[in-house]
Amino acid sequence: MSIALxxxxxxxxxMYGMAGSMKTFQPxxxxxxxxxxxAHDKQDxxxxxxxxxxxxxxxxxxxxxxxxxxxxxxxxxxxxxxxxQLLAIFxxxxxxxxxxxxxxxxxxxxxxxxxxxxxxELFL
Length: 124
Hints:
Elements: H1 2-25, H2 27-32, H3 44-67, H4 73-93, H5 102-122
Helix pairs in contact: 1-3, 1-5, 3-4, 4-5
């Protein structure tokens, strides 16, 4: 179980790290990206906020459990990333009828829930 959790954490951290850095440091290119239609009508501050949230979540998935310092932050980060995916599905993609993006959100949501549950289970 521990190996599967680490694999999920590294995958999630990599995906959220790449997406979060692009949203944080290049909001104009995100807005112009044909695959990220949700950002076309958003301001830089909003896109950066989402990016910073994703970056903090990516760091929170790895660093606390790896160092053993405040390890409870790892399941908290996974819960936060799960909330980001739920908000993306229900407040952005479904209202805009962007059904082709939702499977990716569901996979990320499932991995985040798996990490949150698996790492929270270690504290019980």
